[in-house]
Amino acid sequence: MLLLWPCLIFTAGCAQARPQLAQASQAQACQPAQAEAADAMVDKLDDWPAVDRFFKAYRQCDDGYIAEGSSDAIAQLLARQWDTLPNLQALIRQEPALRSFVLCQINTTLDSDELDRIKRNATESCPSDGASLCADLRLTAEHASK
């Protein structure tokens, strides 16, 4: 739960809001070719393995319009493909920093209907082994709604 608060306070960009994410990107700057590839990949973030690949390859580029695109894609997964949450949980077990990345994507740039659906899913349809993640998703969506 402690990892949630920096993201709640600073939602402008995950690398800036999460020092551990900036460290995890090994202090790499986003190179122009990487930004181009990240931008192209944002349109293909249609499942959790794709989000994981994006996170591993391009997290240093998740800022500005790229961050808006990744936020929208992740919100779509959480709002409309909630039944795939166990896939996200499995990936988080392998790469714990992915959790912070996903939580940072739930922010004020998202549509209020999507935020409401994420809150409802996290409250009403949480997998039995996902209580902590669901609580963080709900709290983050509530904060972004304000």
Description:
There is one protein chain. The protein is mainly alpha-helical and 146 residues long. The chain is built from ten helices and no strands. It has one domain. Helix 4 packs antiparallel against helix 5, helix 6 crosses helix 9 and helix 9 runs antiparallel to helix 10. The chain is globular and about 40 Å long. The two termini are 20 Å apart. The N terminus is likely disordered.
Brief account:
The protein has 146 residues and is mainly alpha-helical. It has one domain (31-145).
Total domain modules: 1
Q: Estimate the global geometry from the Cα principal axes.
A: globular
Average pLDDT taken over every residue: 87
Question: Which class best fits the helix and strand makeup?
Answer: mainly alpha
Number of strands: 0
Number of helices: 10
Instruction: Tell me the strand percentage band.
Output: under 5%
Q: What's the end-to-end separation, in Å? A: 20 Å
Helix content: 55-70%
Signal peptide: 1-17
Keywords: Signal
